[in-house]
């Protein structure tokens, strides 16, 4: 495997005006880029691949471009934009909801602030799609939404019912104050779910669930709960999921790993390897609000340094995430008809030494980095 | 049966009495536990007691069925079977065929019976527990109930270098009369004193010795300068200067060298620094508290640098079992805290691990002593019984509460076993000393009967409700209420 | 003088998780990549308290041997014997009985120049330390083995560790070998901090761990006036140290002069003694005849110069002021860095290292001119973080380096585990503009040089201690794995699940 020196790529690609990389002259909204590698996201890698974008969607990905379209060569590797399975950037206000644990119909998309300056940092790290969730200390805090921070678009509302089933949801000040109480409340809501309520929709499979659970005990309880009510979706947290592979496999649930804190043991790395080997889907949260925009990439890199293969890490941040959210028809891989969210990396997309030189969301260039500036330019 | 109360035993008094014992006079003084200072006149009576018990556990060989112990002048003069040993005609005979005689437990380290455990000063080796022992403190009375015959009273653990301790027996109206061994050692701590971190504690501990070294070096330097000046002055004045013999002694330390220290008369060393000097020279034992296994490393390092490892006993928190190999390699003895089971949660697997600490040291071959420093109900017999329950052989368990502490305190020939020449301490149990159903019926210290359970007022109060003479139980008053509604519903 | 403190090797006793699991297969694959030839890895049983096997020679081979960043040998080998590198070259042969280890890349082990690994948390978080405190007193031989394992697995085998991360002045830090907590250099640095809060005060709603760097500069920060006060205090301590050093030097000089003068005088007196004796005998006789007492001649001499009173803290700072020990000051804000540079200017021999340095770009010229080293701790968190728009975020290292400032990369976290992220942070710095070789230098030979252990570690050179990594790829590449970690010549056992 070649290691592409940053120097070479930076020099080879002369600093362009924005216009040169977006729509070529003559065509309304079409352009084509060729990179030394195009990672489709599902494991396929096209050497010297060309990606063609029209009207914000991918027109083609392959070895060549259609006639009549000028192809701009970029140094580096193209990969789908990363999908962060949880991030609360710009939604600090949502942490104020401390008095009520149950607000199941709350639509978190309403807290989305596309103009928040912190989004730019996230985008500059190659994250084009983010799942916004209610705070972790709520039990049924509301419905997750998928947003595109770069374009300001709400991609999909009501994508999952977010359930907090970890110790974070239990406090001494608001009921319920125990696990038993938490499950009693949840049982009541799910068992007596009114038609059309988020709980009923979760039971019927119309809506997914995202369950926060940390310790092995919490994870086991969450899995049992999901089985009991026939829920699909994923567990967020589960750093020791590697010890519960069989249980998770039998549940059909996926796992979303939280970013590592400096003081956390890297159990996540071992778990990621185990889940990959067993075929249990997993993805990553970014939590840039508390951990910073590069935390998701760092967590993935930590897993790789412990043995997770690069494709596994890439899939977790792209295709698998999209599958978990049920938006794989439009997101997650670079295939015809899907949304043109992709990143030009100066090297391997999962390598921390790579930088996102260009980020496209919805076919528009939303981020471009210059090597020597002290601030990243953004849209 | 009657008991003889002998004259109270100060060391000099006993010497006098044993000298006077050649005049065999019957001793028939009955009385309360009044204490007398040894009489000076030559017609001193020598108390003799013969204690016959159904079983005598000597801890110096096999237990003796129907055994007998002869105590003369406060010392054991004979131990054996009733068939073999002659009872002096003038001895008071105690006959308890249903009881078991035992040498009594030795408390190797305790911080009770004193006014307050620690001072705020970090380094205060000049202090002495002699000034803070309170003879009427409840601890001493209770020690008799638990069959403890001597205890090493030391300052508490919240210190860097604390004061000197002493070995006392739990009976006497003055500290002097309780004294068994005055200079029993200095207390130190390798674990952080309140407000310190491990780093600053080690710094302070090392610093105490470094300060001493600097002090002594300066003293010697000043003396040298003075001597040199005197010599030059004499030369100038044309006088012959007589050589002066060294007034002091050379420093006797394995780890330190101070050239010319013999020039300093020992009396000139500041009394505040002197105790640590004795530590360096191996004349003062050290009891070093370790709150964690890492502290053991600090303790051994400081002791090694300053040459007193051989004279140090480690007083351990139960988490220190992890340092057992290190302790074994250093060849020091340890005193265990009274909570013998260490519990810890494995940070990775989450499982709780319980370790029975004495077993670790027993298996490692480290001499260990038990202690019962907190509650009476964790007394030494209970500690030893727990050891037996955990699989430690009975002899080793008993030794940990008797002969090992005696050895640590340098009192092996005086306490911890019933043998000729030992101090006349005997405890009579109603059954086996380690059995939970046994109680201490009588305690004899230095041949003096100091405790009789049948006359123990507090025990009587607990067991059959008898009230001490002169007291009347108070009836609780009926509460009338004051007519207002105190309920919560307003 | 600097003491290189060789303690007895502490035991490495890794905790192994349950053997039977799906991961055993993955572990086996990793082991296969090791191409273990020669003797099997003996003596590293699970839970063993045995001394690490240092006596066995190691023969490491790789396609690329990074002697030092920028100096690469292709298809080269390293021979390790008795804890040292005894040979480096392209045509070496493995001696009999040596354990052979192969990989893609061999390089020097990573060194975190700003770490707390090896010390107990009480001392790390303590604020009552002083200049004479030795961090090595806080070594915790029973610290969580899992922590040291993780550091070894990520290739961080050396650290410059300190205690009192948030303490104004925290005393001497040490260079340690992480797997064994062995001390390489006991007095590697003096540490201080300006404006740091204790860990745990950060308004972090997700567990109160004190944010990514272990402490916060948020709304609860120390007042700016107080921070300047801290700098003043530090500078006055330096001045006191300098005065102490000067007083000591003066005393030594005076003492030598006095001794010489006294020696001369003594010789003179001895020579004149016979005469003096005669004169005295005569005086005595005369006095007897007169019936008077003998009046002795008055003898005068210069008093011996007095030694300055020993002060441990001043003595410590004296060493710092004279450049014997570098001083690491944690400072983030431009105002403080500038003030620090300005106030320490008079101390010409002071070796200043600034840790953190978020706003150091504001003083990049002065930093370069003064030869100040900056330890950057690129936290992936909050690039618009503690100091707002002045914070260049993850490109700080690159920008400082471009300005000619000597840059190191460290973690500076109250949690010892944080050091594990060192190679990832270096990689992130590369992704944000830092030259690759510079980044590798910033976590290997750079820290070794700054903390005076470059003659032992940091580069793969004959005669150096064997602290090395055998990797499956480029050291900074995210897909590279540490195949073997060699610490002090012994292979660090890898934890397997």
TrEMBL record, chain A:
The region annotated as signal peptide is: 1-19
Amidohydrolase-related domain sequence ranges: 229-365
In Gene Ontology terms, what is one molecular function of this protein?
imidazolonepropionase activity
Indicate whether Hydrolase appears among the record's keywords: yes
Highest taxon of source: Bacteria
List the EC numbers from the record.
Answer: 3.5.2.7
Query: What are the protein's UniProt keywords?
Result: Hydrolase, Signal
- Principal EC category: hydrolase
Name the UniProt record assigns to this protein = Imidazolonepropionase
Q: Which gene encodes it?
A: hutI_3
UniProtKB/TrEMBL annotation, chain B:
Which residues fall in a compositionally biased region of kind Acidic residues?
474-490
Q: Which domain of life is it from?
A: Bacteria
**Biological source species:** Saltatorellus ferox
Name the record gives this protein: Amidohydrolase 3 domain-containing protein
Q: What's one GO MF term for it?
A: hydrolase activity, acting on carbon-nitrogen (but not peptide) bonds
Q: Which InterPro entries match?
A: Amidohydro_3, Metal-dep_hydrolase_composite, Metal_Hydrolase, Metallo-dep_Hydrolase
| Gene3D superfamilies per the UniProt record, alphabetical | Metal-dependent hydrolases, Urease, subunit C, domain 1
Amidohydrolase domain boundaries: 392-451
Note down the stretches annotated as region Disordered: 460-490
UniProtKB/TrEMBL annotation, chain C:
Could you say which residues form the signal peptide? 1-42
Family matches, as InterPro entries: Amidohydro-rel (IPR006680), Metal-dep_hydrolase_composite (IPR011059), Metal_Hydrolase (IPR032466), Metallo-dep_Hydrolase (IPR051781)
Residue intervals of the Amidohydrolase-related domain:
268-483
Pfam families reported for this sequence: Amidohydro_1
Q: Which GO terms describe its molecular function?
A: hydrolase activity, acting on carbon-nitrogen (but not peptide) bonds
SUPFAM superfamilies documented for this protein: Composite domain of metallo-dependent hydrolases (SSF51338), Metallo-dependent hydrolases (SSF51556)
For this UniProt record, the keywords arranged alphabetically read as follows: Signal
Query: Which stretches of sequence are listed as region Disordered?
Result: 284-307
Keyword check for Zinc: no
Top-level taxon:
Bacteria
Q: Where is the composition biased (Basic and acidic residues)?
A: 294-307
From the Swiss-Prot or TrEMBL record, give the protein name.
Imidazolonepropionase
């Amino acid at each position: 495997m070649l290691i592409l020196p940053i120097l070479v790529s930076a020099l080879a690609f002369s600093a362009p005006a924005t216009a040169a990389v977006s729509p070529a002259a003559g065509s309304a909204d079409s352009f084509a880029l060729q990179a030394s590698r195009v990672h489709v996201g599902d494991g396929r890698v096209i050497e010297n691949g060309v990606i063609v974008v029209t009207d914000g969607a991918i027109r083609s990905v392959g070895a060549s471009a259609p006639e009549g379209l000028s192809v701009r060569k970029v140094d580096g590797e193209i990969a789908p934009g990363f999908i962060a399975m949880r991030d609360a950037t710009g939604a600090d206000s949502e942490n104020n909801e401390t008095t009520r644990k149950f607000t199941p119909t709350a639509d978190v998309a309403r807290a989305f602030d596309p103009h928040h300056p912190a989004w730019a940092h996230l985008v500059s790290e190659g994250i084009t799609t983010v799942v916004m969730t209610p705070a972790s200390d709520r039990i049924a805090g509301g419905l997750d939404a998928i947003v595109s921070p770069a374009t300001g678009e709400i991609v999909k509302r009501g994508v999952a019912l977010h359930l907090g089933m970890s110790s974070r949801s239990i406090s001494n000040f608001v009921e319920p104050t125990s696990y038993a109480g938490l499950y009693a409340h949840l049982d009541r809501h799910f068992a007596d779910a009114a038609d059309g309520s988020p709980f009923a929709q979760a039971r019927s499979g119309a809506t997914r669930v995202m369950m926060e659970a940390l310790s092995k005990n919490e994870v086991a309880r969450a899995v049992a709960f999901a089985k009991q009510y026939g829920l699909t979706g994923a567990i967020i947290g589960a750093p020791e999921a590697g010890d519960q592979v069989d249980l998770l496999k039998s549940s059909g649930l996926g796992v979303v790993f939280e970013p590592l804190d400096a003081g956390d043991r890297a159990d996540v790395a071992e778990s990621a390897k185990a889940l990959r080997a067993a075929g249990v889907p997993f993805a990553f949260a970014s939590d840039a609000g508390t951990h910073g925009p590069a935390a998701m990439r760092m967590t993935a890199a930590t897993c790789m340094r412990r043995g997770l293969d690069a494709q596994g890490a890439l899939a977790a941040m792209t295709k698998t995430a999209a599958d978990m959210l049920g938006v794989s028809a439009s997101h997650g891989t670079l295939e015809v008809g899907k949304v043109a969210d992709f990143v030009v990396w100066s090297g391997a997309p999962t390598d921390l030494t790579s930088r996102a030189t260009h980020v496209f969301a919805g076919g528009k260039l939303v981020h471009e980095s210059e090597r020597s500036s002290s601030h990243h330019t953004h849209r | 049966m009657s008991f003889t109360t002998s004259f109270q035993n100060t060391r000099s008094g006993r010497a006098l009495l044993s000298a006077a014992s050649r005049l065999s006079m019957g001793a028939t003084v009955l009385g309360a536990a009044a204490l007398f200072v040894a009489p000076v006149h030559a017609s001193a009576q020598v108390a003799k007691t013969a204690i016959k018990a159904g079983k005598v556990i000597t801890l110096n060989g096999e237990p003796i069925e129907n055994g007998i112990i002869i105590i003369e002048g406060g010392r054991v003069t004979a131990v054996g079977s009733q068939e073999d040993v002659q009872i002096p005609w003038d001895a008071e005979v105690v006959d308890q065929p249903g009881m078991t005689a035992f040498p009594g437990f030795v408390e190797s380290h305790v911080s009770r019976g004193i006014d307050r455990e620690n001072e705020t000063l970090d380094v205060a080796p000049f202090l002495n527990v002699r000034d803070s022992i309170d003879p009427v403190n409840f601890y001493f009375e209770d020690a008799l109930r638990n069959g403890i015959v001597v205890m090493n009273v030391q300052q508490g653990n919240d210190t860097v270098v604390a004061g000197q301790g002493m070995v006392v027996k739990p009976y006497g109206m003055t500290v002097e009369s309780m004294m068994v061994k005055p200079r029993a050692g200095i207390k130190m701590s390798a674990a952080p004193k309140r407000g310190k971190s491990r780093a600053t504690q080690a710094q302070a501990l090392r610093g105490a010795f470094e300060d001493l070294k600097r002090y002594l070096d300066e003293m010697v330097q000043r003396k040298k300068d003075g001597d040199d000046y005197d010599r030059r002055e004499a030369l100038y004045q044309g006088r012959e200067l007589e050589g002066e013999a060294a007034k002091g002694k050379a420093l006797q330390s394995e780890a330190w060298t101070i050239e010319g220290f013999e020039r300093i008369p020992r009396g000139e060393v500041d009394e505040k620094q002197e105790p640590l000097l004795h530590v360096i020279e191996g004349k003062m034992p050290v009891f070093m508290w370790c709150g964690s296994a890492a502290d053991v490393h600090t303790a051994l390092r400081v002791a090694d640098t300053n040459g007193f490892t051989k004279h140090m006993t480690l007083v351990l928190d139960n988490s220190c079992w992890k340092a057992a190999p290190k302790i074994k390699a250093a060849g020091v003895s340890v005193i265990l805290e009274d909570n013998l089971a260490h519990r810890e949660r494995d940070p990775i697997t989450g499982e709780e691990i319980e370790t029975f600490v004495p077993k670790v040291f027993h298996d490692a071959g480290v001499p260990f002593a038990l202690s019962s420093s907190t509650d009476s109900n964790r007394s030494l017999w209970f500690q030893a019984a727990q050891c037996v329950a955990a699989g430690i052989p009975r002899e080793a368990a008993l030794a940990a509460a008797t002969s090992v502490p005696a050895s640590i305190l340098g009192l092996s020939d005086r306490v911890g076993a019933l043998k000729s020449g030992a101090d006349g301490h005997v405890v009579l149990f109603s059954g086996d000393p380690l059995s939970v159903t046994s109680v201490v019926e009588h305690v004899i210290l230095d041949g003096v009967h100091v405790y009789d359970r049948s006359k123990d007022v507090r025990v009587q109060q607990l067991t059959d409700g008898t009230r001490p003479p002169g007291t009347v139980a108070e009836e609780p008053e009926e509460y009338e209420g004051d007519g207002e509604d105190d309920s919560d519903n307003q | 003088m600097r003491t290189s403190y060789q303690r007895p090797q502490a035991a490495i006793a890794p905790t192994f998780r349950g053997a039977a699991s799906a991961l055993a297969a993955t572990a086996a694959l990793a082991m296969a990549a090791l191409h273990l030839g020669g003797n099997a890895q003996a003596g590293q049983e699970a839970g063993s308290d045995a001394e690490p096997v240092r006596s066995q020679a190691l023969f490491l081979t790789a396609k690329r041997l990074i002697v030092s960043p920028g100096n690469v040998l292709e298809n080269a080998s390293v021979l390790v014997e008795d804890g040292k590198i005894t040979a480096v070259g392209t045509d070496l042969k493995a001696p009999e009985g040596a354990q052979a280890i192969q990989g893609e890349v061999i390089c020097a082990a990573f060194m975190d120049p700003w770490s707390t690994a090896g010390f107990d948390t009480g001392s790390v978080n303590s604020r009552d330390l002083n200049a004479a405190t030795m961090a090595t007193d806080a070594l915790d031989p029973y610290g969580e083995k899992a922590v040291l394992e993780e550091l070894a697995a990520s290739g961080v085998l050396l650290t410059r560790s300190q205690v009192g991360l948030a303490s104004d002045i925290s005393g001497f830090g040490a260079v340690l070998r992480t797997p064994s907590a062995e001390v390489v250099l006991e007095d590697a640095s003096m540490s201080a901090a300006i404006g740091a809060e204790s860990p745990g005060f950060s308004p972090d709603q997700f567990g109160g761990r004190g944010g990514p760097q272990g402490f916060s500069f948020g709304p609860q920060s120390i007042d700016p006036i107080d921070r300047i006060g801290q700098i003043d205090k530090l500078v006055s301590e330096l001045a006191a140290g300098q005065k102490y050093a000067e007083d000591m030097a003066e005393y030594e000089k005076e003492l030598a002069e006095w001794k010489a003068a006294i020696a001369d005088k003594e010789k003179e007196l001895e020579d004149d003694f016979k005469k003096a004796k005669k004169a005295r005998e005569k005086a005595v006789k005369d006095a007897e005849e007169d019936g008077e007492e003998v009046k002795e001649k008055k003898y005068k001499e210069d008093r011996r110069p007095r030694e300055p009173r020993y002060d441990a803290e001043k003595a410590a700072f004296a060493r710092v002021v004279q450049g014997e020990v570098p001083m690491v000051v944690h400072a983030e804000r431009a105002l403080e860095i500038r003030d620090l540079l300005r106030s320490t200017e008079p101390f010409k021999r002071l070796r200043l290292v600034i840790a953190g340095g978020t706003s150091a770009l504001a003083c990049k010229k002065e930093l370069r001119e003064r030869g100040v080293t900056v330890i950057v701790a690129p936290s992936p968190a909050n690039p618009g973080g503690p100091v707002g728009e002045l914070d260049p975020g993850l490109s700080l290292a690159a920008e400082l380096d471009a300005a000619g400032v000597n840059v190191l990369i460290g973690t500076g976290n109250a949690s010892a585990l944080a050091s594990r992220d060192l190679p990832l942070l270096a990689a992130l710095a590369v992704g944000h503009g830092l030259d690759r070789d510079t980044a590798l230098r910033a976590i290997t030979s750079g820290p070794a040089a700054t903390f005076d252990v470059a003659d032992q570690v940091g580069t793969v050179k004959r005669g150096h201690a064997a602290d090395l990594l055998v990797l499956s790829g480029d050291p900074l590449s995210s897909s590279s794995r540490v195949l073997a970690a060699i610490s002090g010549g012994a292979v660090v056992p890898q934890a397997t699940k």
